[in-house]
Design a protein that fits this description.
The protein is α/β, with parallel strands linked by helices. It is built from seven helices and seven strands; from the N terminus they run ββαααβαββαβαβα. The chain has a single domain, classed as Aminopeptidase (3-Layer(aba) Sandwich).
Length: 266
């Protein structure tokens, strides 16, 4: 099923995979307002639709956006409140990159009216589909699992100090999924030695994890933020590094398979 702003694949398993930052397009009518460097959409979650293709083979549903997070960030709350108060944040319609650099030419950033239009055009359809599919899954299976997949450059001094852990599992401090599911995923991370990891560290989960993760209502959500360095080059053209990706892929598969193998009360 293809919509103007995203592609949606309906699966058979109780798992929905959301990849809110893989989109790379900027509408033609907006391009002249961005600074030239922004058109490279550096802060994309590169290649995740390919890395997570196995999840569809396992029966997961998946939603993949078309447009860049520079148009609108699908993992931010619609009221545009900061995700991490007290830290440098990017907005619902970002005006700075993750390096802290301006995305728009002087005076060309979107005003409140335009942000509202973008929210209706790009943000709302994605979330209506995401929420609707989770409800369908819950009705069919009795519960629903949401996997929110992300990736990021390993060093971004404007946002945090030093290098991020390779794999960052987020469960909103344990609030977005059942403790048993969180523990099972943590065990997968703990037994592998190829990648550093942390749970509910700098990335506890964005709006999608926090909003939809309601274990008391039968929806269990987790976020995985991965460093680009786990599977790709961190400079243009941002190509997949096959040797690294081959090490990462089994870990990803085991994490997702562990989620699929879990069920409430198991």
């Amino acid at each position: 099923m293809t919509e103007p702003v995203f592609t949606f694949y309906r699966g058979t398993a109780p798992l929905m995979v959301s990849l809110p930052h893989v989109g790379r397009e900027i509408p033609d009518e907006m391009k002249s307002r961005f600074v030239p460097g922004a058109l490279a959409v550096e802060d994309t979650d590169w290649h995740l639709d390919s890395l997570y293709a196995f999840a569809r083979e396992l029966g997961a549903s998946m939603i993949v956006p078309r447009y860049s997070r520079y148009v609108i960030d699908l993992n931010r709350p619609p009221e545009n409140t900061p995700m991490y108060p007290g830290s440098n944040n990017t907005e619902l319609c970002p005006t700075r990159s993750f390096m802290g650099e301006a995305l728009y030419r002087q005076g060309e950033a979107p005003n409140d009216e335009e942000i509202a239009r973008r929210r209706e055009r790009y943000w709302r359809p994605y979330h209506e589909c995401l929420g609707g599919e989770l409800e369908r899954i819950k009705v069919k299976h009795g519960y629903a699992l949401l996997w929110d997949g992300h990736s990021i450059k390993s060093r971004l001094p404007w946002m945090f100090e030093g290098k991020l852990p390779d794999l960052n599992l987020g469960t909103a401090g344990g609030a977005s999924c059942a403790p048993a599911l969180r523990s099972a995923l943590m065990r997968v991370l703990a037994k592998q030695s190829a990648f550093t990891h942390v749970t509910d560290g700098r990335f506890k989960g964005g709006h999608i994890t926090r909003h939809y993760g309601r274990p008391e209502r039968g929806v269990h959500a987790v976020q995985l933020e991965m460093c680009w360095s786990c599977y790709m080059e961190e400079s243009p053209p941002y190509a997949v590094e096959a040797t690294r990706a081959a090490v990462l892929q089994p870990v990803l598969r085991e994490l997702v398979s562990t989620a699929l193998g879990w069920s409430p009360g198991a």
